[in-house]
């Protein structure tokens, strides 16, 4: 969960033509998620988060914080069953940086449709018309901001 100095969250809009099926939580063709993705062999979750952030945004000047949330879910991805172990880390971008698509991997170039910085108010308003993940993202962001961006304790376990 990448925040800027104005407490806006960066979300990436993905385009998947019915590829992901999460039981009880439909995902449409277009949906917004924080930057992230799968781990490569030998990576831990934080290493994977750093690499994915750089690949999907080009942003490297980032202050990393704790793991906020975890989500373990079985999905169908491209028709195949996959068990996802998601970890959401708090991070803040330092200074002024521009998001770029220059480091996207070949499959990501087609899948990543857009990116946008969202204020909490914009996120709350968009929840009625946009698909946002993780489920309940505006409330989750509100909790982090209410804690001054410095949550304490163990990561919260999310459910679909």
From TrEMBL:
Entry keyword 4Fe-4S: no
Cited InterPro entries: NUDIX_hydrolase-like_dom_sf, NUDIX_hydrolase_CS, NUDIX_hydrolase_dom
Residue ranges occupied by any Nudix hydrolase domain in the UniProt entry: 1-141
Signal peptide: none
Superkingdom of origin: Bacteria
Any matching Pfam family: NUDIX
Keyword line: Hydrolase, Magnesium
The protein's required cofactors: Mg(2+)
The protein, known as: NUDIX domain-containing protein
């Amino acid at each position: 969960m990448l925040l800027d100095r104005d407490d806006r969250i960066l979300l990436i809009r993905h385009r998947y033509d019915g590829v992901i099926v999460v039981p009880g939580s439909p995902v449409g063709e277009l949906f917004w998620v924080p930057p992230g993705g799968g781990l490569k062999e030998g990576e831990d979750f934080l290493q994977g988060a750093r690499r994915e952030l750089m690949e999907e945004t080009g942003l490297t000047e980032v202050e990393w914080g704790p793991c906020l949330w975890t989500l373990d879910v079985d999905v169908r991805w491209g028709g195949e069953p996959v068990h996802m172990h998601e970890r959401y880390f708090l991070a803040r971008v330092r200074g002024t940086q521009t998001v770029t698509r220059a480091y996207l991997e070949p499959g990501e170039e087609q899948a990543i449709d857009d990116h946008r910085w969202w204020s909490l108010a914009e996120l709350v308003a968009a929840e009625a018309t946009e698909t946002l993940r993780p489920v309940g993202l505006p409330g989750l962001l509100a909790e982090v901001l209410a804690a001054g961006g410095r949550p304490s304790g163990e990561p919260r376990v999310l459910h679909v």
